[in-house]
Amino acid sequence: MMKFARYSLAVSFSPIGSNVFAKSFRFPVVGCIYRGNLESSRLFSASCWREQLNGKNGVVAKQYLPPWFSVAPMMDWTDNHYRTLARLISKHSWLYTEMIAAETIVHQKDNLDRFLAYSPDQHPIVLQIGGSNIENLAKATELANAYCYDEINLNCGCPSPRVAGHGCFGVSLMLDPKFVAEAMSAIAANTNVPVSVKCRIGVDDHDSYDELCDFIYNVSSFSPTKHFIIHSRKALLNGISPAENRSIPPLKYEYFYGLLRDFPDLTFTINGGIASIVEVNAAREAGAHGVMIGRAAYNNPWHILGHVDTAIYGVPSSGLTRRQVHLQNFWLSTDASSPTLIFIFPHYSEFPIIFPLIACFSYN
């Protein structure tokens, strides 16, 4: 039985074992309201990471497999709910947060859990920040240290008018590589984890391979940045939407592979137009150090993420069935007659939470 309400969804399941339903707090969920002592169950606050530190602020003791596969940061999509689901399916994919503006982190320093907290199961996880004020980028990075992200990434690729236009950051930053180098130096100076840049191959008419090389050279030479995630399309800032910027500008993978050749000491992850595990492995065989997938991993998480651990990392999968993934992704509440999976989201519509769950069952 499925029941839709404005802020809730209830799905009834037959019992699969008393051990699953013995406690209503068995499975951690980000952002849900549940029955219990909220103050004693703050699973996702900064205090959770203190015991993971290895003598230095922001250094996580555990080591992870390389970022051969990652899920792209996507606004309104790669939130805590999706990342919890993704981690249940793949234990080794690198996950990214949505982009968070540095100004938001700085101005909300007394409410950081709302923006930066996450389940410890989501490691390895990268925090992506955006901004055009070096002081705020540095301060935001410093504030984020308490949450022990595994890498800090600067967004230099978003073509949204709110970001690249009015906000003067995102892909607009590619037009000022000197500034990006200074920003990355400030970010790196305030964290002990690696830093990286996600960018396009160009902006409007500034789309030659030489201009891309100039950007990579300046940022890598004058900052500690050694990892670049390259969306292999340029961005058009006037006249088309962010969605059209993901399809109208042609893919130029030759730019990406040229960077591999011309900057052998740097690490490059390819992004854009790759939508299957077969294509991921083909890109890696062609020399890509890593591959990032966006909407394909969101729209079809089981088919994409379900094969990452075995086909890319060569390790066993999580072993969970789709049903088990669904049950473990959200709080389970039990009444006297039957177990019921209950979602309550007072600050969100149902779609962002339910869609990736539906997608798990929608494809073979």
From TrEMBL:
NCBIfam families: PRK11815.1 (NF008774). PANTHER family: FMN-LINKED OXIDOREDUCTASES SUPERFAMILY PROTEIN (PTHR42907). Pfam families: Dus. Keywords: NADP, RNA-binding, tRNA-binding. This is DUS-like FMN-binding domain-containing protein. It comes from Stylosanthes scabra. Residues 71-310 form the DUS-like FMN-binding domain. Gene3D superfamilies: Aldolase class I.
